[in-house]
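Field: COMPLEX_INPUT
Field: COMPONENT_COUNT = two
Field: RESIDUE_TOTAL = 735
Field: MODE = joint
Values follow.
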Amino acid sequence: MRRIISMLMENEPGALSRVVGLFSQRNYNINSLTVAPTDDVTLSRLTVTTIGDDRKIEQIIKHLNKLVDVVKLVDLTDGSHIERELMLIKVKVSGAQRAEVMRLADVFRGEIVDVTPTSYVVQLAGTSDKLDAFISALGDTSILEVARTGVSGISRADKVLSL
Amino acid sequence: MLSGGDMLIRALHDEGVDLIFGYPGGTALHIYDAIFRQDKVEHILVRHEQGATHAADGYARATGRPGVVLVTSGPGATNTITGIATAYMDSIPMVVISGQVTRDAIGSDAFQETDMVGVSRPVVKHSFLVQSAADIPNIIKKAFYIATTGRPGPVVIDFPKDVTDPAEKFPYEYPETVKLRSYMPPQKGHTGQIKKAVEVLMSAKKPIIYAGGGVVQGEGAEELTKLTQTLGYPITNTLMGLGVYPATDKQFLGMLGMHGTYEANMAMHESDVILAVGARFDDRVTNSDISKFCPNATILHIDIDPASISKTVTAHVPIVGPVKAVLKEMNDQINASSDKVDADALKQWWENIEHWRQRNCLAVESAGELIKPQQAIQALYEVTNGDAYVTSDVGQHQMFAAQYYHFDKPRRWINSGGLGTMGFGLPAAMGVQLAYPDATVACVTGEGSIQMCIQELATCKQCELPIKIVNLNNEALGMVKQWQDMQYSGRHSHSTYADSLPDFVKLAEAYGHVGVRIEKLSELKEKLAEAFAMKDKLVFIDIAVDQNEHVYPMAVKGGAMSEMFLSKTERT
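Field: COMPLEX_OUTPUT
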């Protein structure tokens, strides 16, 4: 099952490599990974999406918690949560396709953030599923480039990942 | 005001370190100069950095105190990796200090530059790259704290050369305590879980206690022995746990697992409750197919590392905590409770076990004057009155030592169980002998393993270490050969080298030691006793043993614990 694990880690050199190294060393999957500073300068927040059965996910979480750099961790998929990913996608468009892609971007609540006579860059945020759906909805429109940020997420309501 | 190099050595002293093992080189020279200018921390010069790590490891295993290693950058650092991985797999507290190129040269492919923090990452508990000399006292304090607490393990500290520059001085104060917000090892077990475990344990009909190296590292042997004897339950130890329960006691069933005793493995398989203490259901115990493992057992698992619980075998009652504190609480709860063990069921259970025991799976068939390797270990046990520190290398000799030397105390049996590192035995014995100069230290090895760190014979000479090397010489890589006999129709691919073996007696003499060769059973005990009587000398005892011997019992590949080969012709 797909899981979104979010953690606060010490903003120290080598911390990221320890997390990533753990996944490769123990043959765990990383589907996406994002890391960025938080409001606390000593902490970064890292979010990873991974796939595994319950036993594997339990091991991943235990091993992540063992890392000295990992301060606190939550499996967002354990509870109600919001997941978002940002995608910038460059498509080759001409003729009737230009209006078609613009309408499609509208339907998905995306924005066209760059326009040339032959291409658009569409910016789209949402769950990974939604971004996948947009890509397949483009059908035979020629995709020139896809840049996705990977999943970030946060728990709903009172549940908070902080110290 | 102290320079970085002086701070490092001073901090080691303030941490209680009086002995380190190392090898100098370019980027470590400021540190070596700091060592030269003081007399608090003694340095042992090894002949290869791998030897330094194994020696520090042996020291740590024998004493319970962290082993400390100092090496230079590049090859010095990479040569420690095998030793670090060995310590990591067996949860041994160790601090490895490596030199590094200057901060401004890092990343430039400078001479003898290696990304030590990166190279060692998968085999350390944690690591530090010192960015500023002012951080040194804090980093040393943290490193030792992390290495020695919780599930112990090796910690690397990489020191860029300019950080140790004698010209730059900083105020020095060694912190008394350390607190890390992201690292808080448990101090005790969950009382409710312990209560639940005690209830299951007391109502068991066919219980067994399965104790591992965590009981050694967690100093839990005394509480474990008390618990086992209060309950009257059978106990088995893993390879790493030998000695945590006296092997000569009747409740002890011997080692379990791949080369465990028939009675220990049968009792595990038939049990209804297993109390696992500081053991991790390693594949050498469970025999890889978990679905066949102890099918009727309720598993109670005590371990300080939550990741060891339900990793391979699901624990029905997990208890995360230090074994000593948890076992003490169990003992207290049992004493305070009016519940009694099921005496009738236990009597029946012991009858079953005695029946298995009568199979006498470790009986040795004599072969005239030809020395069986088992007989060599039996003789060693007798000659040393069962009270030596025994280090070993890896292979058949290791298993024979584990089976035939009956360890009654923890920290006496020192071997590389997890990583299985050949070359471990001799340097580890150096660490033990340096920790206990008057103790009898025997290194049980084979002619294959001993050649992997043979250079340390020179260190032994320099430090006058009276180690006794017991070389079970079968002129082959015995364990490899055994597997080739059993699984590859006897095709001995690259496991023999009889025509190119050194004369170990002359080799020992060349290093300034005494060499003894034993070839006949009738002279075994006497010559061994003579060698051990040379209290102030290292004696290399080269024993010619049966070249066709296999280690039995041996688990049947992919089978349950009850499936074993008991000899070349018998299978359960």
